[in-house]
Design goal:
Two copies of one chain form a homodimer.
Chain A lengths: L1 E6 L5 E4 L5 E4 L14 H23 L4 E11 L10 E10 L5 H15 L1 H5 L3 E8 L2 E2 L3
Parallel strand pairs in A: 5-6
Antiparallel strand pairs in A: 1-2, 2-3, 4-5, 6-7
Helix pairs in contact in A: 1-2
């Protein structure tokens, strides 16, 4: 898979891959840019959430759960200030579903996604921690 | 850093981080989506190119080189079909600059970016290979 990024001046780049959807990145003002685009590290987290979302929605669809809302929060952390890359990422799934969906099944979908199906999680060095809020209730594994 | 991704139906998510710039992802039709957004793995490559672009443009600016065009190609590969994540990413910088810029200095900026400054490369498992085309000529390291 190839992505081509064209310099837009300053710290900004416009990147396009096989999908044809262009994504603009920029550094924040704090880091010498103008904030006229997503921060590159945001794309890593957006890619992780979007990727896990693909397999989780697929598995939940097959389980015939009546999912009404999914929000995924991906929070990347660094061990120390000096560490450049993410060392730990917490991925929180907030899922609302009608009926009485078994939390264990949703949790299993999240685990399968992270461990087996998601190419982004497999590409990252960071340890990934999962959390599920199903209809507002924290699933206690 | 936290990114929040809201399900758009199907395999699509809309992700927003601290920058406020929203990025839509979707799976391709081949992977059960509708291709109505960037593929999550494209965001990894766009993040890497955008991130290396930030530090490379910064360093080149300090070097007072008259850079006219920068295009970065990031191509992710997997060792085998069974491997989910990227195992190798080639990052090609195509830079046009007037005057007679010393290729070694541009190359050094790319190396510094990859090894020291870029948070995305530090977050990825993949080995990263660099290539420089300066004014159309391959720099032979």
């Amino acid at each position: 898979m190839k992505v081509t990024s064209v310099w837009q001046g300053g710290r900004s780049f416009l990147s396009t891959g096989p999908s044809g959807y262009a994504v603009k990145t920029d550094a924040s003002a704090e880091h010498g840019g103008q904030g006229e685009g997503a921060a590159p590290m945001e794309l890593v987290l957006a890619g992780l959430a979007g990727c896990m979302g693909v397999s989780v929605t697929m598995i939940l669809e097959r389980s015939r759960l009546a999912v009404e809302r999914i929000e995924i929060e991906a929070e990347g952390r660094r061990t120390t200030e000096a560490t450049q890359g993410f060392t730990y990422i917490e991925v929180v799934f907030k899922i609302d579903a009608s009926g009485n969906p078994p939390a264990r099944r949703v949790w299993r979908a999240m685990e399968l996604s992270m461990e087996k199906y998601c190419s982004v999680s497999a590409s990252l060095k960071a340890d990934i921690g999962l959390r599920l809020l199903l209809n507002g209730c924290d699933y206690d594994t």
